[in-house]
Amino acid sequence: MAALYVVLGILGLLLIWVFTSYNNLVTIRNRVHEAWSEIDVQLKRRSSLIPNLVETVKGYAKHEKEVFENVTKARSALMSAGNPGEAAKANDQLSGALKSLFAVAENYPTLRASENFKALQDELSDTENKVAAARQFYNTNVLDLNNTVQTIPSIWIAQLFGFQKAEFFQASEEEKADVNVKF
Q1: What string of pLDDT tens digits covers the 183 residues of the chain?
Q2: Which of 10, 16, 42, 85 is deepest in the core (most CB within 10 A)?
Q3: Residue ranges of the domains in the chain?
Q4: Residues sharing a CB contact under 8 Å with residue 19, sequence separation 6 or more, in sequence order
């Protein structure tokens, strides 16, 4: 009878170990899936955010460029005016262009286009850091899964229930290259 209790005890411990190992593998596998989901979110953020930011800054820089072009055109028109009517018209154009320039200067004392470019750079850097952090989180979880799936004794449970190694997220050569934003 005592031998039966010993055998039942050993089987019970073995069963507990199987359940615990299986649950651990499921937990780690789910962390890998969660980590991949975070990479996906950040990549989508990057693909949505960066083009919008680039277009916003381009639009702002274009606006300033138009203000300067308008001031230059109006000044040239005033300088080349042949009669008082043309001069008055050119003066009105120049006044309007200068108002636009002064409005930009008031709102952006240093003509803050450079701050917009800096904001874009900061946002690009922040996005890239978030992608890198998500990749690191994913790879850490993949390492945990792979170690658990490949080491004794959990390898037996992994094989029994069909758990597989996961692949690390490695940057391609193209992704390793510096990001160049051109305006």
Answers
A1: 899 999 999 999 999 999 999 999 999 999 999 998 887 777 777 666 666 666 665 565 566 677 767 777 877 776 776 655 565 566 667 667 767 666 655 554 444 556 666 777 787 788 878 888 988 999 999 999 999 999 999 999 999 999 999 988 776 565 555 545 444
A2: 42
A3: 2-171
A4: none
Rounded to whole angstroms, the Cα distance separating 48 from 80 reads 48
Within 10 A of 170 (CB to CB), how many other CB atoms are there?
Answer: 9
Q: Is there a contact between 138 and 169 (Cβ–Cβ < 8 Å)?
A: yes
Q: Are 111 and 105 in contact (CB under 8 A)?
A: yes
In one-letter notation, the amino acid at residue 66 is E
Counted residue by residue, the chain has a size of 183
The predicted-structure confidence for 20-35, as pLDDT tens digits, reads as follows: 999 999 999 999 999 9
Dist CA 23 CA 136 (whole Å): 24
If DSSP codes are grouped into helix, strand and coil, which group holds residue 180? coil
C-beta separation of 149 from 165 below 8 A: yes
The per-residue b/e assignment along 102-136, b for 16 or more CB within 10 angstroms, e otherwise, is: eebeeeeeeebbeebeeebeebbeebeebbeebbe
